[in-house]
Amino acid sequence: MQVLRGRVIHPGKACGQALVSSEPISLLGGIDAETGIVIDPRHPLSGQSVTGRVLVFPTGKGSTVGSYVLYQLKRKGLAPAAIINARCEPIVAVGAIISDIPVIDGIDITQIRCGDWVRIEEGGQIVVGG
Fold it and tell me: How far lies 53's CA from each of 6, 63, 64, in Å?
């Protein structure tokens, strides 16, 4: 079990299996808001579902409309359980806040592997493998 601590962008508790990418994600055009599937064919997570997962990636990229993709995912029950970033930028932050998805940043995301069980706790604490 490993404990990481980061900066809270949007508070909350969550747990789930990690879905990890070393590449930034564009929410608009990168994730299908109707299915929760990563649809960018050039992205390493292409074809995988973000639904209920702890989505781990370095930073977001792309259009500000991406915030509403997260919101639509949440309304449809397809959103990630939480988001962990190395650096959270405004598109991901706004989307998470309006969707009530916990987000932590300032994390060395190389410490988390795809499939790890991850628990987000109060105060920006992340428990990996526990």
Answer: 19, 23, 23
Specify the CATH number of the domain 2-128: 3.50.30.10
Catalytic residue numbers read: 63
Q: How far is CA 16 from the centre of its chain?
A: 11
Q: Are 67 and 74 in contact (CB under 8 A)?
A: no
For residues 12 and 29, give the distance between their C-alpha atoms in angstroms, rounded to a whole number.
Answer: 27
Measured in degrees and rounded to the nearest 5, phi and psi for residue 95 equal -60, -40
Give domain limits for the chain: 2-128
Q: What is the pLDDT of residues 12-55, one digit of tens each?
A: 999 999 999 999 999 999 999 999 999 999 999 999 999 999 99
The token pair that represents 115 in the structure block: 């499939």
pTM: 0.96
